[in-house]
Amino acid sequence: MSHRILLAAITALMITPVHAETITLRVLGQPSGSGLIAQKKEQPFFEKLAATTGLDIKIEYLPVDVAGIPDTDGLRVLKSGLFDIVSLRGPQVSRDEPAMLGLDLVGLNTSFAAGKAHIAAFTPFVDERLQGRFNAKLLGVWPAGPQVIFCKPEVKSLADLKGLKVRVGDQSAANFVAKLGATGISMPFGEVQQSLARGVVDCAITGPASANSGGWPEATTTVLPLALQLAVNGYAINTASLKKLTPEQQAKLTAAIGELTTEIWAFSEELYEDAMRCNTGKTPCERGVSYKLTEATPSETDLKAVAAAVGDVSLPIWAKQCNAVAPNCETVWRATVGSQLGL
């Protein structure tokens, strides 16, 4: 009888459901002062992710600047497993993986519609690179918004940038302004406003919403609304962290982040239009501070110069860098994105 009781006890233990421990996912987010996309979309999404998806997870969200980690280290952080999910800043992490820059070369994404088509075409290659080199799965890509030019001296066209110092976001932009006779200078976003005020730089490139939140219009006079790039960012997860989830859980997480990126695309377009009105003293100005910048009108020559920049400047230089680490990089880009442009 004692044996039957023991057997029954063992059987009961075997069929008793075992509840897995709640999985904690550490998320490294956009900088705390980077603007409304981080404040209104990204951070609330991750903080509510467990509730909205029903996943048995706990999210620990931390902006990259609060964590004290350089935003250039996003891919290294993913590979190390220090954070499970990272909100990658495309231009910054392209130093570690040049393929990222292929999503947003200067002159490539001159509108949101163009950006969607070009980014979708090259994303599979970028994802393949991240999985192979950084143990990271790319879950979504989104734009901060059209990157335009803000200047302290009055400018009316790209030709007026000759001889000026221009803060740029990446090497592609630096190469473009160099061809115009300007000097591209790289510096953290938080230093730009004071640098403009003190004359360290004459002009700077960013999105209108970021410029507004950073107070750039207080130190500039003119905005030239030529969309040079879209400032592409993305969400990636460490592959080992992803494997901690069941296939069903993975599908839910992937779908949720896919919905987030779709929302950000639409929100980014709304922010651009509103911020352009705010920066130039027009109404309605709903999400920013109203300023009185002069809005220069891009000439046909300017528009052609930006469009030609892909084939003339940004592609040739970037292709050499990308091919150096991925010999098929340019070939894949030309077969996917380039075919849409007729290159």
From TrEMBL:
One Pfam family, please name it: DctP
Q: Which domain of life is it from?
A: Bacteria
Is the keyword rRNA processing assigned to this protein?
Answer: no
Residues in the signal sequence: 1-20
Record carries keyword Ion transport = no
What is one GO biological process annotated to this record?
A: transmembrane transport
> Keywords of this protein's UniProt record, alphabetized?
Signal
- What is the protein name stated in its UniProt record? TRAP-type C4-dicarboxylate transport system substrate-binding protein
| UniProt organism field | Ancylobacter tetraedralis
